[in-house]
Amino acid sequence: MTNKSTRLVKSSTDLRWQSFVPWMLAGVVTVLAGIVWGDSFGWRLSELSIYQLFPVFGLVAFSVMWSHYMADFLHKTLLKHADLDLYFKVTSFVVLLAILLHPGLLAYQRFRDGFGLPLGSLTGYVVPSIRWIVLLGTVSFLAFMAFELHRWFGEKSWWKYVLYANDAAMIAIFYHGLRLGSQLHGNWYQVIWYFYGLTLIGVIIFKYYQAFLRKKFHPAITTNI
User: Fold this and answer.
1) Mean pLDDT over all residues of the chain?
2) Domain hosting residue 162, numbered range
3) pLDDT, tens digit (0-9, with 9 covering 90-100), for 37-52
4) Choosing a second label site near 67 at 20 to 30 A (CA), which of 3, 5, 95, 180?
5) Could you tell me the CA-to-CA distances from 81 to 19, 74, 75, 78, 146 in Å, in that order?
6) How many CB atoms lie within 10 A of CB 21?
7) pTM assigned to the model
């Protein structure tokens, strides 16, 4: 085998390996979310209610979105040759589905139980002192839904504000889950959740620092963050 052929094989292997890493990351965080969710009710699936079901979609949505941030960071630093198009396409659909099901299932069950429609039915699910955290989740939900308009407005100059809102929403949902998620209280997953939060904040800071440097040294470049 010639040196050129060897380099091509190595390059192809590196590309496949680098492209696999984000998939593996998304898979691991999804499995962890599923494990802690099942542990929270002793895996008694025959007794499962919607009130027990809806939290898993919140865990999965945040976890997979966290993997998006990590994948983007790794693509800019260590995995520069990774092809992430299919990864983002598939996992973004998973995230959208989970984002819709998490509040949607709760709203449906609350309505069936006679508590009316959102937002009142959702805020009434928790004690008054933490209802603002439910509202925080609602605002974050709207920010995530706004992001789905990127297919039509992603190239607009004002789109950066939607991206800012999504970064803020991710941090808000980290706190939302920490305060409201029964799966995050006093167990091993709480440590994982803090790890998600710290790395998320670190990656967001890195992203804005990189944007600051681009603006400072290459002011003619006006790409969205």
Assistant:
1) 91
2) 9-217
3) 999 999 999 999 999 9
4) 180
5) 8, 10, 7, 9, 30
6) 18
7) 0.90
Separation of alpha carbons 82 and 79, rounded Å? 6
Buried-exposed string 202-212: b where 16+ CB fall within 10 A, e elsewhere: ebbeebeeeee
Task: Determine the Cα–Cα distance for residues 170 and 202; give it in Å rounded to an integer.
Answer: 13
Q: Would 4 be classed as within a structural domain?
A: no
Torsion angle defined by CA atoms of residues 106, 111, 115 and 116, in that order, rounded to the nearest 10 degrees: 120
Q: Report if residue 224 sits inside a domain.
A: no
CA angle 151, 68, 177 (to 5 degrees): 105
Asked if residue 153 is part of any domain, the answer here is: yes
pLDDT of residue 218: 63
Cis amide prior to 119 (ω within 30 degrees): yes
Contact by Cβ (8 Å): 63, 30: yes
Q: Tokens in use for 19? A: 């492209």
Q: Which H, E and C letters describe the chain, residue by residue?
A: CCHHHHHHHHHHHHHHHHHHHHHHHHHHHHHHHHHHHHHHCCCCHHHCCHHHHHHHHHHHHHHHHHHHHHHHHHHHHCCCCCCCHHHHHHHHHHHHHHHHHHHHHHHHHHHHCCCCCCCHHHHCCCCHHHHHHHHHHHHHHHHHHHHCCHHHHCCCCCHHHHHHHHHHHHHHHHHHHHHHCHHHCCCHHHHHHHHHHHHHHHHHHHHHHHHHHHHHHCCCCCCCC
Q: How many domains is the chain partitioned into structurally?
A: 1
